[in-house]
């Protein structure tokens, strides 16, 4: 990783540098000087053949490996740094810019910028937006830098946008905007800002993956141009034949309204290297409670306790599992968060206990706008402690939101966050219990009567203007809330917090969803690239409202959305207040059966989902990932965003077209095979496969060479399945080997950090299937056992022998389906946490 930091040498006042996002100050390494002249230096980077060339006039930085330029900074001369100034200052002094370059290192290059124009222009000191005015006491303070990526045609990331996975060039329109906003009915295939912002871009070609992390929390714009954009395949061939083909190159320009230039360049070279490099900076996905990976039922709003009881009973009556039921803003006493409506939710503990008796949980919304009401404890405390954001004149900033007039707590203040966390204690949050978790909405922040439905940029967070910190607000709200849920249990229980607004590092605090989508087929389709883009920048726990938030889905769309959502990380149905009810059993028995089957598939796969999240937590690899991450040298995968992988071993191509009779899925991997998980049919990799579909089809394939654990006894919630047995699905590759893992812990505490878990490698080779302990120093026991092993691509054995840890051997019953080459071992019965071997003779 190379870090480049550019700041004013002697600014009028300090410029904002983003705190709290990096998990630690990255360690630095000294660079060795290879050569220098009057205009620059050549330095060696850590890796042997990598070096940095820094030129002074004009400033330019090139990162080389051997003879190849990996990335150039300011090669187009778009570095801009507007210095802070006093109004009516006739003599702006020459400003020095100080440049820190880290390869995880520090070297100084000084460069003077020519005197910026003294004449006042419109908007320099004040801007108007409709009826709003934004005062800028120190004038414009924008920064900009360009990056050139030779050999690159595919760039990804910079969520959140309702956009394809592969980012488009912006030459003929607006740049991609990163500015957290409460957007009403957002448009698709549009660079407009949405609810969250992660200023991280990945670039990929068949040789290398690199990343750029632009650490700035102000409004940011990203311009992308490419010398091959718009060229047809024929045009590129013609170039090649005529020998005139230039090397493809993508150029990216980042522009932020304030702050400093602080950018991390991650050099890969593999996708997995970039993920771990970024995780070393901002941390990994928090490890969620197992139950939060199951199904969530939500709407705005369940009317009262009786309604909650009826919906809960409806799931049991129709034999559909669920783990969480959600309450939106109407559950509160007049939109006062941390309270309950005294008529509709008069006895919340009784309600929570009723849910707990069925081993289920609840989420209630807690938004960060606080009703201005002198009879409201939360408001009085925040006001008396001075914790509200201030307006530019020093009074408490007030805006309009769900409760009417509202104050906005300053979550950038650590004392405010600590106080907020303390409000989740059981003795503070009346009616709360250990099975109540939290949803932070509207935390962009949303201000109904503010510019673009958000806060004025000249509002004050202590010494800093809102313009400096805007994209951090939601990150801090979720951080403080997650901390509150941890503290209320004495640090024992893992939290679950869903947020709408987010920034780099938000993965450490919980889950994210794609906001207020609509019940339309295109919104179902776009949920896939939106979640893939989030996963590429560290946020693995993401999903979209199943069924669409606005409008009403047809029964076909609803079924297809359940089938898609069941294979996305965060699986929640949600709907707007004004839509007709859409619990899964309201669309006739046929559709109820289809939805039940999709939800049940999710529950059978929970052991695999949980393992993926454990690995994401340990390594920073995404859970839901684009095909190119696993097949980085196959250009056919680079732009695919209608199918995806879960981990390395499951490929999913949901049906997202209305009236579809078939889908075409690309199965990657030249010498690989894939097994249809429903029929066990084997297909070769590196082909486009046409799959006929009916309303019950969810095209899912297991990679040959993998072992996936499932629990096939689906009960009413994931917690009810804790001690149930496993079935192992062993899919052999052409070399007749397979491997996988099994991870088990208590599912909800931090005890895994004290080595209380089971982590086993499952391995099949030479006709022996074995379970090997990957964590010999860990201690945990499980009641779960292996009740079945299904081997795909097998040949028929004459006998099957089980050898347990104590050396005892026993014969196992088996069945062989010669038409499909499937071997089933019934009731081998070994404990899931112990060593064992199954030998096929």
UniProtKB/TrEMBL annotation:
SUPFAM superfamilies given in the database record: (Trans)glycosidases (SSF51445), Galactose mutarotase-like (SSF74650), Glycosyl hydrolase domain (SSF51011)
Coiled coil: none
Domain Glycoside hydrolase family 31 N-terminal: 8-223
Catalytic activity: N(4)-(alpha-D-Glc-(1->3)-alpha-D-Glc-(1->3)-alpha-D-Man-(1->2)-alpha-D-Man-(1->2)-alpha-D-Man-(1->3)-[alpha-D-Man-(1->2)-alpha-D-Man-(1->3)-[alpha-D-Man-(1->2)-alpha-D-Man-(1->6)]-alpha-D-Man-(1->6)]-beta-D-Man-(1->4)-beta-D-GlcNAc-(1->4)-beta-D-GlcNAc)-L-asparaginyl-[protein] + H2O = N(4)-(alpha-D-Glc-(1->3)-alpha-D-Man-(1->2)-alpha-D-Man-(1->2)-alpha-D-Man-(1->3)-[alpha-D-Man-(1->2)-alpha-D-Man-(1->3)-[alpha-D-Man-(1->2)-alpha-D-Man-(1->6)]-alpha-D-Man-(1->6)]-beta-D-Man-(1->4)-beta-D-GlcNAc-(1->4)-beta-D-GlcNAc)-L-asparaginyl-[protein] + beta-D-glucose; N(4)-(alpha-D-Glc-(1->3)-alpha-D-Man-(1->2)-alpha-D-Man-(1->2)-alpha-D-Man-(1->3)-[alpha-D-Man-(1->2)-alpha-D-Man-(1->3)-[alpha-D-Man-(1->2)-alpha-D-Man-(1->6)]-alpha-D-Man-(1->6)]-beta-D-Man-(1->4)-beta-D-GlcNAc-(1->4)-beta-D-GlcNAc)-L-asparaginyl-[protein] + H2O = N(4)-(alpha-D-Man-(1->2)-alpha-D-Man-(1->2)-alpha-D-Man-(1->3)-[alpha-D-Man-(1->2)-alpha-D-Man-(1->3)-[alpha-D-Man-(1->2)-alpha-D-Man-(1->6)]-alpha-D-Man-(1->6)]-beta-D-Man-(1->4)-beta-D-GlcNAc-(1->4)-beta-D-GlcNAc)-L-asparaginyl-[protein] (N-glucan mannose isomer 9A1,2,3B1,2,3) + beta-D-glucose
Gene Ontology cellular component annotations, sorted alphabetically: glucosidase II complex; Golgi apparatus
A Pfam cross-reference name: Gal_mutarotas_2
One GO term (biological process): carbohydrate metabolic process
UniProtKB keywords: Endoplasmic reticulum, Glycoprotein, Glycosidase, Golgi apparatus, Hydrolase, Signal
Domain Glycoside hydrolase family 31 TIM barrel stretches: 286-610
InterPro entries cross-referenced by the UniProt entry: Gal_mutarotase_sf_dom, GH, Glyco_hydro_31_C, Glyco_hydro_31_N_dom, Glyco_hydro_31_TIM, Glyco_hydro_b
Pathway per the UniProt entry: Glycan metabolism; N-glycan metabolism
Domain Glycosyl hydrolase family 31 C-terminal, chain residue ranges per copy: 620-708
UniProt xrefs under Gene3D superfamilies: Glycosidases (3.20.20.80), glycosyl hydrolase (family 31) (2.60.40.1760), Golgi alpha-mannosidase II (2.60.40.1180)
GO terms of molecular function: carbohydrate binding; Glc2Man9GlcNAc2 oligosaccharide glucosidase activity; glucan 1,3-alpha-glucosidase activity
Main location: endoplasmic reticulum
EC number: 3.2.1.207
CDD domains for this protein: GH31_GANC_GANAB_alpha (cd06603), GH31_N (cd14752)
UniProt keyword Transmembrane, yes or no: no
Superkingdom of this protein's organism: Eukaryota
Compartments where located: Endoplasmic reticulum; Golgi apparatus
Protein family membership: Belongs to the glycosyl hydrolase 31 family.
Record-given protein name: Neutral alpha-glucosidase AB
Species annotation: Cynoglossus semilaevis (Tongue sole)
